Amino acid sequence: MASESRCNGLRRAALTDDDSDTLRRIYASDQEMYPAPLTFDRLASWVATCPELSISFSPESSSSEGHVVGMVIALPLLREHWQDLLVGKLKEPEVELSMFPQPNNNFRPDTGHSVESEVGLHVFHIERFNSDTLPSSWFGGRGFAEYALQEVIAVATRKEWRIIGFSALTVTEAGRRSFGRLGFKPTGYQEVFTTAEGGDDDRGDARVEMACVYPGDGLELDVREGSKVVSVSEMLAKYLPEGRTEGQLWE
């Protein structure tokens, strides 16, 4: 791992090519919960393009070297793409590197200066491991989600970006509660995965289909008779106030 920093007993490091096994575990775990058509290569390209927003957390103590206790992967999206993602016009697996802010893409020849890119930070993955054994002091008395997202925004604000908000496509009730405590609200976009009626794929596994609920459609989705809901993903977002400081992030 590279780009390490330390605080509150934790070592923070950006993911590198050496962490491919960790990334594959994250990919497999997410595919099990959220069977979207995302390839591992696309996930790896997101991380490789902006590794400083893919952060692992491990104890500082030498005896715990390599023992990762938490992970966050965030994607920086230019405003128009981020807003499309919030309402389902853009699906998470469709995010392309061209939607990330590019170096010098806001350079103004007339002034000789760059202007800030407006960026929304989409949390692709956040996870805390071994939750029963971690001292709360490691996270500054905060929950892990808040601590990890503060680390993400600390990195992001060192760039020529104006951070306009956060988002997350939540799959579990625990995830929705965690982001809800930080002020994230539903955007109205949901993805509902069901097993196809009486259908198996070529391997004999139940075939999974995705249906989308868009803002304004209402809260209910008709599921075909004989089908079973596998999972429901809900998009949550939080816009950040103008002129906010890191300490005011969740107020």
Could you list some keywords that capture this structure?
251 residues, 5 helices, Acyl_CoA_acyltransferase
Describe this structure in words.
There is one protein chain. It contains five helices and eleven strands, in the order ββααββαβββαβαβββ. It has 251 residues and is α+β, with helices and mostly antiparallel strands. 22% of the residues lie in helices and 35% in strands. The longest helix is centred in the first third of the chain and has 14 residues, at 20-33. The radius of gyration is 19 Å and the shape is globular.
What number is the mean pLDDT? 81
**Which structural class best describes the helix and strand composition?**
alpha+beta
Question: Count of helical segments?
Answer: 5
Low-pLDDT residue spans: none
The CATH superfamily turns out to be Gcn5-related N-acetyltransferase (GNAT)
Euclidean distance between termini CA atoms: 33 Å
What is the total domain count? 1
Helix content estimate: 10-25%
The portion of residues forming beta strands comes to 35-45%
CATH architecture: 3-Layer(aba) Sandwich
> Quick one: biggest sheet?
9 strands, mixed
Sketch the topology as an H/E string, one letter per element: EEHHEEHEEEHEHEEE
CATH domain topology:
Aminopeptidase
Mass-distribution shape = globular
What is the alpha-carbon Rg in Å?
A: 19 Å
CATH class: Alpha Beta
The order of strands across the largest sheet is: 1-2-3-4-7-8-11-9-10
How many DSSP E strands?
Answer: 11
